[in-house]
């Protein structure tokens, strides 16, 4: 089933929040999810230890450059969706995960620093495509945006992406208190109390629209010849 990786060569781009929102939305639809927490900060592993984790979500935190490819491919044969939260840098774990992804989501905040970090991942994807000899579908998700104001910096990033012809999700992830509370109290948006969280309904709507766009793009590609060779070798 689909393997969806979140990557940006700059930390703090909002990829962990984006990965967790997608995972909880998918689980709320009754689908099983395996999350690979490849970020050294282990925020998703911490979230998994809090109360309220959906039973449909499993989290894997023990990952090495040598094992991650096989781990992801094995999980994709069992879970409905595999989601990978990658480290905010370029390394072998990132490259190996991207090479077996059906979709790579590059979260970018409205800043030139984030755009440069995202550009590094897009360049890496282009290099990997030549190595694995197939296209690696990818898109950009704008994160931590302001619901009321489009900043000058965000407009510059949007123009940069448009010029490059990069696929950008129509639904940005808006900065919401409900998203931060997931990492403090656990669970998903569905289990949060609207009496204690401002604009929870808007957060739920935003997350649902974001997830719908991702899932629309995340079609499973036919397993390639290299995959069969890899499985025999392992």
From TrEMBL:
This is ParA family protein. It comes from Roseibium polysiphoniae. CDD domains: ParAB_family. InterPro entries: DNA_Partitioning_ATPase (IPR050678), P-loop_NTPase (IPR027417), VirC1 (IPR009744). Transmembrane segments: none annotated.
